[in-house]
Amino acid sequence: MSFPTHRPRRLRRSEALRDLVRETRLTAAGLIYPMFVCPGTNVRQEVSSMPGIHQQSVDQIVEEAREVESLGIPGIILFGLPESKDPRGASSISAQGVVQRAIEAIRKAKLKLLVITDVCLCEYTDHGHCGVIENGEVANDATLSVLAQQALSHARAGADIVAPSDMMDGRVGAIREVLDEHKFENIAILSYAAKYSSGFYGPFREAAQSTPQFGDRRSYQMDPANAREALKEVELDLEEGADMVLVKPAMPYLDIIRRVRDAFEVPVGAYNVSGEYAMVKAAAQNGWLDEKRVVLEILTGIQRAGADIILTYHAKDAARWLKP
Ligand code: PBG
Questions:
Q1: Does 248 qualify as catalytic in the annotation?
Q2: What is the CATH number of the domain that holds 95?
Q3: Mean pLDDT of 12-40
Q4: Is residue 19 part of a domain?
Q5: Cβ atoms < 10 Å from Cβ of 120
Q6: Ligand 1 atom closest to 277 (CA)
Q7: For residue 207, how far is its CA from the centre of ligand 1 (angstroms)?
Q8: Residue 8 Cα, ligand 1 centroid: separation in angstroms?
Q9: How far apart are alpha carbons 133 and 231 in whole angstroms?
């Protein structure tokens, strides 16, 4: 039996009906806001390709973190722009590093916000790669101890969750081992398990000053054409001790989010990255798209695909728009 008995439009007649039968309910409760910490005081420099997003010194980070918390967003993820760079990313493990000091300042301000840290070398190496270089290549095993020490320094400063984004093999296990050795067995690992080698990271590399000085990231980040491989990456990271996993970017990889959600029983996050944000902002500024409408549609789509957690530069705007 079909039309005229069945009329799907009956349930779309009013907002009350549409609201009653809505399958995906987007709230701020799953959003994470990314922030960029730089040296100095009173620094607040907008990233030109990411309108509304700033590189900020620790004092300013605390102020914006307070605002983020007041909007009902549960957490932030911190990226660092260090004072100095070298081949091994030494500034990434310093207790005096920008990220470490930002975490401490947020803790001191008694914010309840979850503090997640991005664990990677690309912002801290002079060559801009996510690992140390040996014989002209990004050396996997030699990078692991630096990543683990970086994660440990974040935990010591008071981070709740560490999020390795480097895509070295074995880094989750290496980080878990060092955290446990130092009695940080309760610090969770959110691994960027399925991170693709993507053109959508362009604006981020301006924001984080992390463009590779030679070559590209294709020898460690995933080929955009592969889906089965994402499931393998997730499986390996979970075996090594990841508590949650991320798919990144989000919009071109909704199928990956769905497959990971269906195949594993852990929280799944998606990173709605800088290039996805920049496209929406540019179109909105030209009057070509209704920003509020498309942002909420994008985030709803990412959640509908299966993401429990969404890292997004739109988090503050979305939280305001979603306020009951
Ligand atoms: C660092 C890192 C990157 C992003 C998050 N962590 C950049 C990269 O891998 O080049 C991208 C985030 C974004 O584009 O918003 N490894």
A1: yes
A2: 3.20.20.70
A3: 98
A4: no
A5: 28
A6: 15
A7: 10
A8: 42
A9: 28
Residue 11 lies in a domain: no
pLDDT band at 183 (very low <50, low <70, confident <90, very high): very high
Shortest-distance Cα residue to atom 10 of ligand 1? 201
Q: For ligand 1, is residue 246 a contact (CB within 6 Å)?
A: no
Using CB atoms within 10 Å of the CB of residue 22, give its burial: 0 to 12 exposed, 13 to 18 middle, 19+ buried.
exposed
Structure token pair of residue 86:
């070298």
Total count of domains within the chain: 1
pLDDT in tens, 111-150: 999 999 999 999 999 999 999 999 999 999 999 999 999 9
Nearest-angstrom CA–CA distance, 235 and 263: 9
Distance 17 CA to ligand 1 centre (A): 41
The reply to whether 195 belongs to the active site is: yes
**At 262, phi and psi to the nearest 5?**
-75, -30
Atom of ligand 1 nearest to the CA of 210: 10
Give residue-wise pLDDT tens across range 274-291: 999 999 999 999 999 999
Residue at 17 is within a domain: no
Give residue 115's domain range. 25-322
Instruction: Provide the whole-model pTM.
Output: 0.97
- Does the Cβ of 277 fall within 6 Å of ligand 1? no
Examine residue 265 and state whether it is found in any structural domain, yes or no: yes
